[in-house]
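Customer escalation, tier 2.

The customer says the design service returned an amino acid string that "doesn't look like it belongs to this structure." They asked us to rerun it and document both sides in this ticket. The original structure tokens are below, unchanged.
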């Protein structure tokens, strides 16, 4: 059976078993009847497996091995800007409702038009169908039926959460729909209402005694858990309360209560921050060694795992990230440097006394970020020695000039990003080996990895406790529970021995500190892209953060010292900063069909 790829056709395809059309009684592979599928426990299990299809692989599995969302936020700048890739088109502003580089990108499942919209609706349809029939389907035992049901609820919640992140308001469909259904009343529901529906799915799963809190064996990798259900609830309530989606209503107290409960339940059931490096021979003994190990190594599966922080990770999708997103110069077989950290990201890391480098309320005095607005309370930062005495997560996340690097089975050398250095800046867009920014990515690269010592990066971690704690911190700050917000942020900072936040911060100051903590702790984890958007009001834009981005040009002086000068990476604004870029466009054909059917507007603003 050939499935069409739009919302109306997706939600009716493979619809109810009592449909008048015989084609609806055929299973997804087109060879078995649904009656045959639901009468065989093995085939029922296979149908649940289909509900796990199209989970995005993320990270470095995007087209041309570039972390696209990092490259399209203010965290990074890609070396692929003239290679005809998705990031190239985004930088040029070549995005439309008919062809959008992010919506239609290859994310490890192959590229296709309207990929995120169509795939996620297909998965929601499969989950709906499964939930409608699992109650009478043949299973090995009732415990299996209960667990399968709970998993389908979590998966439906997950795919709805992805739709919200990308598109905002969407219809709520909790069952399959027949071909002759009346679609004239179909509408996009508020994000808050969709999030409440997501929470109901998650609660249904959490209430099941058969759904585990943690996966403990490799053969069950990626399966849903109660912890995943709580993580989805945590994140989605944060989205519902945020300015982009709250429709002028105050949901922060509700977001606070939900996130507080999420953190409590996760900790009560064995989740904790990964605070002790278990491989110091690789990651060292500095204060961010555990943080770096967490980012680089896949979580292990056991009843008492080494990594108790990771909540849900992909079972596949890692790549030789050293080969496509690491130090430049093409040395030792390196393919390209990929996306490199911006000066804006580097500016976000505080000094070790806990003071921000810049004024968080207004970090730059000019539109193009060439004039930093320094924090007057920071007495430790030295613009002529800018990488000294910094938050240790800078060392774990970014390769800066002068850092040590082990390469080629033991060769130790200094990173040289200064003009004329081994790894210096090259602004020629056709050159993919060298950084555009004066920095190179480090966070997802295992130390000592190289062509002669290949080490894959971690499987993508969709959720970890550190993010949930920061969700709680943000909701607490916004709702006015400042002591709890401070305690949550301090817990994250303690891992890397950064000082606690100062006492007596105002609500506005606390919110700024939480936002910055998210930026530093969750860099390169595809969080910043969405944070920047959800913090805007519907009429807002990304002018201040994503229009102009900078690097650091370093000159080595005759006496061996260095001079530092900020510069704009390009002479033109980078695409993707307009109001319309806060959300992705719905596919044009889909909009035309839905608007003619319902008489309502469906397209996102600006598209």
């Amino acid at each position: 059976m050939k499935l069409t790829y739009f919302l109306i056709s997706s939600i009716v395809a493979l619809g109810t078993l009592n449909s008048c059309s015989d084609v609806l009684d055929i299973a997804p592979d087109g060879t078995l009847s649904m009656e045959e599928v639901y009468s065989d426990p093995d085939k029922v299990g296979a149908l649940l497996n289909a509900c796990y299809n199209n989970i995005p692989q993320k990270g470095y599995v995007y087209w041309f091995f570039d972390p696209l969302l990092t490259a399209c936020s203010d965290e990074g700048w890609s070396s692929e800007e003239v290679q005809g890739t998705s990031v190239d088109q985004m930088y040029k502003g070549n995005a439309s409702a008919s062809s959008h580089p992010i919506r239609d990108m290859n994310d490890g499942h192959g590229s296709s038009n309207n990929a995120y919209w169509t795939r996620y609706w297909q998965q929601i349809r499969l989950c709906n169908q499964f939930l409608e029939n699992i109650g009478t389907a043949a299973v090995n035992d009732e415990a299996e039926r209960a667990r399968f049901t709970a998993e389908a609820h979590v998966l439906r919640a997950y795919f709805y959460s992805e739709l919200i992140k990308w598109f905002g308001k969407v219809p709520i469909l909790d069952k399959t729909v027949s071909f002759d259904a009346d679609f004239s009343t179909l509408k996009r529901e508020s994000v808050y209402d969709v999030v409440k529906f997501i929470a109901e799915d998650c609660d249904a799963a959490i209430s099941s005694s058969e759904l585990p809190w943690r996966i403990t064996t490799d053969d069950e990798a990626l399966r849903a858990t109660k912890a995943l259900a709580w993580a989805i609830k945590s994140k989605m309530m944060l989205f519902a309360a945020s300015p982009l989606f709250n429709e002028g209503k105050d949901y922060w107290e509700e977001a606070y209560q939900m996130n507080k409960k999420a953190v409590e339940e996760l900790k009560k059931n064995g989740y904790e921050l990964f605070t002790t490096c278990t491989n110091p021979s690789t990651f060292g003994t500095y204060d961010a060694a555990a943080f770096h190990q967490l980012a680089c190594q896949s979580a292990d599966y056991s009843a008492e795992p080494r990594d108790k922080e990771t909540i849900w990770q992909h079972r596949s999708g890692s790549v030789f990230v050293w080969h496509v997103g690491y130090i430049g110069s093409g040395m030792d077989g390196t393919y390209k440097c990929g996306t490199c950290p911006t000066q804006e990201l580097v500016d976000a890391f505080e000094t070790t006394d806990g003071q921000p480098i810049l004024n968080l309320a207004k970090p730059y005095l000019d539109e193009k970020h060439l004039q930093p607005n320094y924090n007057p309370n920071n007495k430790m930062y030295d613009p002529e020695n800018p990488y000294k005495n910094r938050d240790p997560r800078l060392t774990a996340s970014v390769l800066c000039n002068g850092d040590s690097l082990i390469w080629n089975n033991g060769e130790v050398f200094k990173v040289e990003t200064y003009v004329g250095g081994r790894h210096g800046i090259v602004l020629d867009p056709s050159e993919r080996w060298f950084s555009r920014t004066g920095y190179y990515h480090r966070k997802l690269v295992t130390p000592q990895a190289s062509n002669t010592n290949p080490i894959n990066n971690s499987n993508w971690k969709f959720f970890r406790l550190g993010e949930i704690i920061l969700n709680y911190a943000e909701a607490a700050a916004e709702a006015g529970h400042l002591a709890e917000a401070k305690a949550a942020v301090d817990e994250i900072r303690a891992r890397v021995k950064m000082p606690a936040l100062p006492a007596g911060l105002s609500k506005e100051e606390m919110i700024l500190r939480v936002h910055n903590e998210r930026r530093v702790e969750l860099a390169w984890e595809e969080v910043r892209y969405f944070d920047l958007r959800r913090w805007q009001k519907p009429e807002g834009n990304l002018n201040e953060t994503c229009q102009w981005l900078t690097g650091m040009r370093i000159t080595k002086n005759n006496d061996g010292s260095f001079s530092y000068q900020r510069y704009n990476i390009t002479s033109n604004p980078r695409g993707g900063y307009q109001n319309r870029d806060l959300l992705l466009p719905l596919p044009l054909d889909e909009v035309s069909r839905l608007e003619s059917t319902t008489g309502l507007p469906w397209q996102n603003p600006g598209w």
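Tier 2 assessment: The sequence is consistent with the input. The first strand starts at residue 76 and ends at 78. The two ends are 33 Å apart (CA to CA). Sent an explanation to the customer and offered a walkthrough call.
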